[in-house]
Write a structure and sequence with these properties.
Layout: E1 2-7, E2 10-12, E3 18-26, E4 30-39, E5 46-52, E6 57-59, E7 67-72, E8 77-82, E9 91-100, E10 108-111, E11 115-119
Parallel strand pairs: 2-11
Antiparallel strand pairs: 1-3, 3-8, 4-5, 4-9, 5-6, 7-8, 9-10, 9-11
């Protein structure tokens, strides 16, 4: 079993900041990718940002320059620092993890439960 424990969501005013964290634990041999996706009401889930095991990063154009992703490899934890938040950033943010259960590189996907981020005055 794998667990992804998310924290840090909440209500913030436009222009404010939040920091999300997600800690992975359980039957994990190696984490290949960790990151965040989000889903706003009536919209499809979309990429926010990801970080690979060799520190490669990817992020949506809409968050470049405002959000930054980082990872504590020793703690299997990923962080998303969100600055200059806009109302359109309002969504449920889901932690994502692609991991291996053993030395075979099969890459299993796992999702967290989601944490609500609301940007509103």
């Amino acid at each position: 079993q794998v667990q992804l424990v998310e924290s840090g969501g909440g209500l913030v005013q436009p222009g404010g900041s939040l920091r999300l964290s997600c800690a992975a634990s359980g039957s994990i041999f190696r984490i290949n990718v960790m990151g965040w996706y989000r889903q706003a009401p009536g919209k499809q889930r979309e990429l926010v940002a990801t970080i690979t095991d060799n520190n490669g990063r990817d992020s949506a154009d809409s968050v470049k320059g405002r959000f930054s992703i980082s990872r504590d490899y020793a703690k299997n934890t990923v962080y998303l620092q969100m600055n200059s938040l806009k109302p359109e950033d309002t969504a449920v943010y889901y932690c994502y993890c692609n991991y291996d259960r053993n030395w075979e590189r099969r890459g299993f996907d796992y999702w967290g439960q989601g944490t609500q981020v609301t940007v509103s005055s």
